From TrEMBL:
<feature type="region of interest" description="Disordered">
    <location>
        <begin position="1"/>
        <end position="22"/>
    </location>
</feature>
<dbReference type="InterPro" id="IPR041898">
    <property type="entry name" value="MAGE_WH1"/>
</dbReference>
<dbReference type="InterPro" id="IPR037445">
    <property type="entry name" value="MAGE"/>
</dbReference>
<dbReference type="Pfam" id="PF01454">
    <property type="entry name" value="MAGE"/>
</dbReference>
<dbReference type="InterPro" id="IPR041899">
    <property type="entry name" value="MAGE_WH2"/>
</dbReference>
<feature type="compositionally biased region" description="Polar residues">
    <location>
        <begin position="235"/>
        <end position="255"/>
    </location>
</feature>
<feature type="compositionally biased region" description="Polar residues">
    <location>
        <begin position="1"/>
        <end position="15"/>
    </location>
</feature>
<dbReference type="GO" id="GO:0005634">
    <property type="term" value="C:nucleus"/>
</dbReference>
<dbReference type="InterPro" id="IPR002190">
    <property type="entry name" value="MHD_dom"/>
</dbReference>
<protein>
    <recommendedName>
        <fullName>MAGE domain-containing protein</fullName>
    </recommendedName>
</protein>
<feature type="region of interest" description="Disordered">
    <location>
        <begin position="233"/>
        <end position="255"/>
    </location>
</feature>
<feature type="domain" description="MAGE">
    <location>
        <begin position="26"/>
        <end position="229"/>
    </location>
</feature>
Amino acid sequence: MSLSQAFSQSQTQGRSGVEITDPVEREKKVNELVQYMLIMDQKKIPIKKRDINRVILKGQNRAFNGVMEEAASKLLEVYGFKVIELEDKLKDSYILVNNLELSESQKRLINVNEKDNAEMGLVFVILGMIFMNQNIIHEDEMWHALKKLGIYQDDMHSTFGNVKNLIMKEFVRKGYLRTELNTSTDPPTHDIFWGQRAQHEITKRNMLSMVCDINETQPSDWTYQMRLVIEEEQGSQQQLDQGNSSVPGPSSSAR
């Protein structure tokens, strides 16, 4: 859901607290929210609306829409981050998605933690499995595939620590993966899908390109996956066209 849609929908809902009428105080809250979201995003955990109201607005909940809209514009214009509101079970939570194409050297400067890099590598491996398996993988199939990489669900890994907790809880909490309990198996197990953060941060074309590089194949060799790539790109273009025709530009006050 886009932020403009979320803001317009929330206008009809009940509000609490007071509005911020002083422009100086409002600008201060916008800047505090920008810094708060930049800091919290380092943890790669969705940023909750209730935490923003508690930590930043401190009872001025009616100001949320306006402050968030201005903060989102500033994050995009100044820092190159797009604010995405999540849906379903993660409703009223937000993530930041880098809207800029970074060079490899820039990426290394942003993420220099070896453990974080290793975890992101594991995320990409699992997302690749899901994508190449028609957007779903069963938990037992995932563990079977990870065994070939020396990663076992019941072991304490030298880099990842408790691997099962990392994949099934942390990656889910951060929005990279989504799980659903499958009760048709005995015992019940989980089906695993791309999470909302993965859907916003990673394009299917980039994922297919990575898989092709590993397997020394061409994108055209993967008919189903290539169709998903085309569908995603067509959908993104339609959203862009609709946005250009109906959504006004960022507020001039967000600088």
